[in-house]
Design goal:
The protein is α+β, with helices and mostly antiparallel strands. The protein contains 6 helices and 11 strands. The chain has helices spanning 9-17, 21-27, 32-38, 41-45, 52-57, 68-77, and strands at 80-82, 87-91, 98-102, 108-109, 118-121, 131-134, 141-142, 158-161, 179-182, 189-192, 196-199. The longest helix has 10 residues, at 68-77.
């Protein structure tokens, strides 16, 4: 006898929504009852950010989905562009945590509007419509994101993703990094170290 079948569907749904997306997928093999509930919208809605309708409303392109599981998988596998194509959003496939990427137009780049130093180009490999192309000058790039957009109780890493052209001269990589947090309880800046990886 399958004792799990005695539990109300709402109870199983509540239990599954307290686990992880990976656990929900694995639970389908445990029992036919779990398999039926594991695809239900209430389970997968628990893994979506609470503000997902607002996030989807800012998407450059409409996100088509018929179930919350399909939406979760779509956001985990295919980042969406937000803010007119200046930022992308995705979900971490395993945990469901928010993942943001700032495009070059969302960054503060020293001399970024001076064609002698920087040009703006399109690269087919980039998810963003424009990328910054360094002509000549030092790298001074800054980015900001509202911490309220990030998942709570989550460690984040900041990456600077770049690509070198074949004919690159004079780029000696020395990355200085610092993450500044504006705190409401303090009037100044709180400075914390951050891991910044430069991909070249």
């Amino acid at each position: 006898m399958d004792f799990l079948s005695l539990l109300p569907e709402g109870c199983i749904s509540a239990i599954l929504s307290l686990t992880s997306p990976r656990d929900v997928c694995g639970s389908s093999a445990i029992s036919p009852v779990f398999k039926a509930v594991a695809d239900a919208d209430p389970v997968w809605e628990a893994f979506l950010p609470p503000d997902y309708p607002e996030i989807l409303s800012r998407s450059v392109s409409p996100v088509a989905f018929t179930t919350k599981k399909q939406l979760y998988r779509s956001l985990a596998d295919n980042p969406i562009l937000l803010e007119g194509g200046k930022r992308s959003f995705a979900l971490d496939k395993e945990s469901g945590k928010n993942c943001y990427m700032l495009g070059a137009r969302e960054l503060l780049i020293a001399w970024g509007d001076t064609p002698r130093y920087w040009t703006w180009i399109s690269l087919p490999q980039s998810r963003f419509p424009e990328v910054a192309n360094l002509v000549e000058v030092w790298l001074d790039i800054r980015g900001r994101i509202n911490s309220l957009l990030l998942s709570p109780k989550t460690s984040y890493v900041a990456y600077l993703v770049s690509k070198l052209q074949e004919e690159t001269l004079g780029l000696n990589v020395r990355v200085g990094h610092q993450l500044d947090f504006l705190g409401k309880e303090e009037k100044g800046l709180k400075k914390r170290p951050v891991l910044l990886l430069l991909f070249i």
